[in-house]
Specification:
The chain has 225 residues and is of the alpha/beta class. The protein has helices spanning 3-11, 81-85, 96-113, 132-137, 149-159, 170-175, 193-207; strands at 33-41, 60-66, 73-75, 121-124, 142-145, 163-164, 182-186, 210-212, 218-222.
């Protein structure tokens, strides 16, 4: 472990002292240190109806871990993605700041990558089309991949964004064989960071795409024009 990570580790107060048996979501290290335990809590955004208030509510461990190998701080429990994302309460367009960020980012990438009607932009975890709408408005073909059916419906009906309602995995990546110009990933726990990195390398090697930077905790790959 490098000196920088050692300095970070010194700032972390472990809970219990014993390493966990979890593996780091980024580097795969097994020696994670628990730094916070908030007990078992209900899912965020899982809003109850009045009829459900007296019914049992599922709760999940909310524990925070530190990886001494790569310094990633992460939660330990991975809630089944079907529970989290098939019916989702949050739409990215709720945030004016996020929408404005998406607009300025798209404008910059269009110029930087020379995108046009012959390009194709694919976004994984595309939510309600908050980002792809700006590519579409510029006359650039787009495709969203979004597992939450209710949110994908907003993208299709309100913004006219063609959207595949599914989780992104190896099968989906194999289907999306059409050459694309930009592919962006918003991280979500269905795959994990290590798997996302692996997929990026695999897609890049198969399609000779180049890796480019992307803001807001997203990953972007561009195909040479």
């Amino acid at each position: 472990m490098g000196g920088g990570n050692a300095a970070l580790e010194a700032l972390v107060s472990p809970v219990g002292g014993e390493p966990s048996r979890l593996q780091c979501r980024s580097c795969g290290q097994a020696d994670l240190r628990q730094v916070l335990d908030l007990g078992r809590v209900p899912l965020a955004n899982a809003l109850l109806t009045s009829e459900q208030l007296n019914e049992p509510e599922d709760r999940f461990p909310l524990e925070l871990y530190f990886c001494p190998q790569c310094a990633l701080v992460q939660i330990g429990e991975t809630v089944p993605p079907e529970r989290l994302f098939r019916d989702y309460a949050y739409a990215s367009s709720f945030s004016d700041t996020m929408v404005e960020h998406a607009r300025t980012l798209v404008e910059a990438l269009i110029v930087r990558r020379g995108l046009g009607p012959a390009s194709l932009v694919i976004e994984v975890a595309s939510n309600d089309g908050y980002l792809l709408q700006f590519y579409k408005q510029a006359g650039i073909p787009v495709l969203g991949i979004e597992p939450a059916a209710n949110i994908a419906e907003l993208a299709v009906k309100a913004k006219g964004i063609p959207t595949l309602v599914e989780f992104f995995d190896e099968q989906i990546s194999a289907v999306q064989a059409e050459p694309w110009s930009i592919m962006t990933f918003s991280f979500f726990p269905k795959l994990g960071m290590a798997y996302i990195n692996q997929q990026a390398i695999s897609l890049a090697s198969k399609n000779t795409h180049q890796v480019a930077s992307f803001a807001r905790c997203q990953f972007s790959w561009t195909r040479p024009q």
